[in-house]
Design a protein that fits this description.
Among the domains are: 58 residues; 42 residues, no CATH class. A hairpin with a 2-residue loop joins β1 and β2. It is mostly helical and 157 residues long. It contains 6 helices and 2 strands. It has a two-stranded antiparallel sheet.
């Protein structure tokens, strides 16, 4: 029977993990005692420690708690710095993308205006940007077919 138990432990059976789990529990217990506040901090009416050894252990406990809080603060600060860096980079790239999109739209509009022709006094005239308004002022009528239809429908009303 003992041989079977030894074989199970050697092959990674349930008994093989017992020493590792015991060490893990011992390490966690040691960490908890290092970080946990002394018992006199948990009471409602705090009373000072009665001996020098208790005072030394309280100081050591406070020191380890302070180190823990410093480490947590450093981690939080690093996380905040990383988050703000990513947010700033994303904001900058978003602004650049929006500006590029606006430039593309403006260039497309300018190109379509430059390529557009309008019938004016029985001639096809190539319109430059702003020329549509100039043609309307000179002739007294809107040169674009859609604009003509819009003004005609307004006149009919």
């Amino acid at each position: 029977m003992a041989e079977g138990r030894d074989a199970l432990q050697a092959n990674g059976g349930p008994g093989a993990q017992a020493p590792q789990s015991m060490r893990l529990i011992a390490n966690l217990h040691q960490f908890a005692t290092d970080v946990a506040p002394p018992a006199h901090h948990l009471e409602r009416s705090p009373r000072p420690p009665s001996s020098a050894a208790a005072l030394a252990s309280a100081a050591q406990s406070l020191g380890s708690r302070a180190r823990l809080h410093e480490a947590l603060a450093a981690l939080a600060q690093a996380r905040q710095a990383r988050t703000s860096y990513f947010a700033e980079t994303y904001r900058t790239l978003s602004e650049q993308r929006a500006q590029a999109e606006l430039n593309r739209k403006q260039n497309a509009q300018e190109l379509s205006k430059a390529e557009r022709r309008a019938p004016l006094e029985h001639k096809d005239i190539r319109l430059a940007p702003g020329m549509n308004l100039t043609a309307e002022i000179k002739t007294g009528q809107r040169p674009g077919p859609i604009q003509k239809a819009g003004s005609e429908s307004l006149r009919e009303r």
